[in-house]
Amino acid sequence: AEAHNNLGTILQETNQLEKAIVSYKRAIELKPDNPELYSNLGSALKELDRFDEAAECCRRAIELKPDYAEAYNNLGTVLQEEGNFDEAIANYKQTIKLKPDHARAHSNLGTTLQEQDNTQIAVLNCRQAITLDPDHAELHNNLGAILQKQERIEEAITSYDRAIELDPDYAEAH
Q1: How far is it, in rounded angstroms, from Cα 146 to Cα 156?
Q2: Mean pLDDT on 48-56
Q3: Tell me, what's the pLDDT at 137?
Q4: How far apart are CA 155 and CA 153, in angstroms?
Q5: Are 42 and 25 in contact (CB under 8 A)?
Q6: Could you write out the DSSP letters of every residue in 61-121?
Q7: Whole-angstrom distance, CA of residue 71 vs CA of residue 136
């Protein structure tokens, strides 16, 4: 099962999502009680906009391991994509409760709060994410996007510049 999971991870990272899903499903056949496998499958399904299946996988991971922070974060991203912001926020908060140093959950919470026009707390969460993981381009980009929506242009430019400095190929920051 571990080899199938590892293969699925590499396939997902190289955007071979259908093949990744096959590998994750094979891993689950071999180890049906492993929550990580369901969470990984859910993440790949989300990337293909198969939100119902993705949410089901994340919920199964949580059912198997109620303190599995990554599964709550993954479920939050699915719910956020669907526009279900209140539930997404609840899942990000649960992630942070279980793992306070989960930088992406702080950033995800910030971007979701921004969607609800809760701008000040959104910025605080994104800044907390960067404090936890200062060398992650996506986190700086997310903060830049929030600041831009708030018309805090100079601060947004600084965040985008930092994202590009960290990862010159990070297209979303350009």
Answers
A1: 8
A2: 97
A3: 95
A4: 5
A5: no
A6: HHHH-TT-HHHHHHHHHHHHHTT-HHHHHHHHHHHHHH-TT-HHHHHHHHHHHHHTT-HHH
A7: 21
- Token pair, residue 54, equals 């993705």
Tokens found for residue 108 = 């995800």
The rounded distance, in Å, linking the Cα atoms of 85 and 111 is: 10
Token code pair at residue 149: 């929506």
Tokens encoding 36: 């990580």
pLDDT tens digits, one per residue of 92-142: 999 999 999 999 999 999 999 999 999 899 999 999 999 999 999 999 999
pLDDT value at residue 91: 98
Environment class of residue 52 by beta-carbon count within 10 Å: exposed (0-12), middle (13-18) or buried (19+)? Answer: exposed
Task: Write the CB contacts of 37 (distance below 8 Å, at least 6 apart in sequence).
Answer: 1, 5, 24, 27, 28, 31, 61
Q: pTM score > 0.85 for this model? A: yes
Q: Enumerate helices (H) and strands (E) in the chain, giving the number of each.
A: 10, 0
How far, in whole angstroms, is CA 72 from its chain's centroid?
10
Alpha carbon of residue 67 to chain centroid: 17
Contact 124, 108 (CB under 8 A): no
